[in-house]
Amino acid sequence: MRPDDGYRLLVQGVLDYAIFMLDPDGHITSWNAGAQQIKGYREEEILGKHFSVFYPPEDIAAGKPWHELDQAIRHGRVEDEGWRIRKDGTRFWADVVITALRDETGELRGFGKVTRDTTDRRAAEEALRASEERFRLLVQGVRDHAIFMLDPDGHITSWNTGAQQIKGYREEEILGKHFSVFYPPENADLPKKELVRASRDGRLETEGWRIRKDGTRFWANIVITAMYDDTGTLCGFGKVTRDMTERRAAEQALSERRRLLGHLVEAQELERRRIAWDVHDDSIQAMVAVGMRLQLLAGRLPAEQQELAAQLDEAVRASVGRLRGLVANLRPTTIDQHGLVPSLAGYLRDVVRPWGLETSLSAELPNEPPMPVAITLFRICQEALTNVHKHARATRVDVTLAGKDGGTLVRVSDDGVGLPDPAPDDPYRHFGLLEMRERAEIAGGWWSVTSTPGGGTTIQFWLPTAPTQEEE
Q1: Which of 2, 91, 126, 414 is deepest in the core (most CB within 10 A)?
Q2: Structural domains in the chain (count)
Q3: What is the distance between the alpha carbons of residues 167 and 442, in angstroms, rounded to a whole number?
Q4: Do 100 and 205 fall into the same domain?
């Protein structure tokens, strides 16, 4: 086989490219299998026709086919991308190379034309461009986050509307400047450290004071993300900043409020304990002693005075019971001596059951909570049980305690009438519910209530094992 035959077979067998020859006037003189695959013409249909048959009408009207041949003659080759037409009239996006072919004397003998169908690639590129444009518009339109790019050295290369809104700089003022311009003087070394950490870990999140263009400070939440290309080379950083000044002020105010409430609750508990111990150690003991003396005296009295003595003894017993109830409400002495669960069991037995409620207590605690936590748990349960007594019209109440997530989860469920629908702007309008929620939140936990009309109410709350800093 001659070398020319091998070359012809190679060209003829290519399917991904249309490879064909034109004479000096642009008429087709050869045709490979790839040309038939891409353009739809069989060889016998297309040989001798002018290659302008592949161009859309608007390109023919503009003289594009002949212009391309002129360019190939002048420069040796021309490369172009554009729409072309198949035999069936459908369009495809083509990458086209036309090469002028000359003999040894330099005379033009024709043209070689290679066409590739790049419709799918163009569609993917267009989709990517559209996606990038949508993303750019999205980023540019964000106003409550400053989103911008840094080069590997920390110089600003992009700037969105939110960045101008938060930091005060217009795009033309800030592009090219180092992002350290946003840091206060006392943190002059921080920008470099943050970029080093972001490069090492891939991402950095932090909070701190930053400076606006006018010199005012704001508290910022900052995320810096290192960006690498396909070869693993650092090509810059993405930086997102949010102005958290108002939130920080609100959190500090809430923290201070909780701290003060915590001190108030602690002082209240100390005073309750003092009063409870005084009543228990003095008043109750004195009344018990009176009851014992009445019983001794009753044995020496005449029969006609026995009934009066019995009435006095009953009055003393009732007073002792009321005082013990008062002590239980103020602070059960058993909580200091025996712990949380025995105190709740005693409260259910001595206080709740006399209200006419059936009760159950289930407790699975890995350890006894610290005393401040135990007191808060007891108080919320006490308030919940009091609410059941006053409002639920229930016949039964069940209390469960369980260790969960490093704390204690408590449920108080009744079978009563349920809660009325709350006002839309005040879901915790009942003072008892508000007090329970605030006690739980002061202790660093959470509180919730679920209720079904006629189907009872469940109070659920969780407190961490360790008291919050405000309580300590």
Answers
A1: 414
A2: 4
A3: 36
A4: no
* DSSP-assigned beta bridge partners for residue 225: 203, 238
Residues 231 and 194 occupy one common structural domain: yes
DSSP code of residue 201:
H
Location of structure tokens 């800093």: 469
* Residue range(s) defining the domain that contains residue 180: 142-243
- Whether residue 35 lies inside any domain: the answer is yes
**Distance in angstroms (rounded) separating the CA atoms of residues 157 and 151:** 7
Same domain membership, residue 317 and residue 196: no
Q: Are residues 185 and 106 in the same domain?
A: no
CA–CA gap between residue 371 and residue 8 (Å, rounded): 95
Based on C-alpha coordinates, what's the Rg of the chain? 44
Asked whether residue 460 falls in the same domain as residue 429, the answer is yes
**Is residue 93 within 8 Å of residue 117, measured between CB atoms?**
yes
Grouped pLDDT means (10 residues each) for the chain, 472 residues? 52 78 95 93 94 95 95 94 94 95 92 93 83 68 84 93 92 94 92 94 93 94 92 92 87 72 66 68 75 76 76 80 69 74 90 93 92 88 92 94 94 91 51 82 89 91 71 39
Q: Do residues 306 and 300 lie in contact, with contact meaning Cβ atoms separated by under 8 Å?
A: no
DSSP string, 208-257: EEEE-TTS-EEEEEEEEEEEE-TTS-EEEEEEEEEE-HHHHHHHHHHHHH
Same domain? 254 vs 239: no
Which residues fall within 8 angstroms of residue 64, CB to CB, at 6 or more apart?
55, 82
The alpha carbon dihedral of 427, 431, 436, 439 has a sign of: positive
Task: Point out which residues pair with 464 in neighbouring strands.
Answer: 407
Of all helices (H) and strands (E), which one includes residue 261?
Answer: helix 245-278
Indicate the length of the chain as a whole number: 472
C-alpha–C-alpha distance, residues 212 and 335, integer Å: 55
Write out the DSSP string of 298-362. HTTS-HHHHHHHHHHHHHHHHHHHHHHHHHHHH--HHHHHT-HHHHHHHHIIIIIGGGT-EEEEE
Looking at the fold, whether 12 and 81 belong to one and the same domain comes out as: yes
How far out from the chain centre does Cα 264 lie?
34
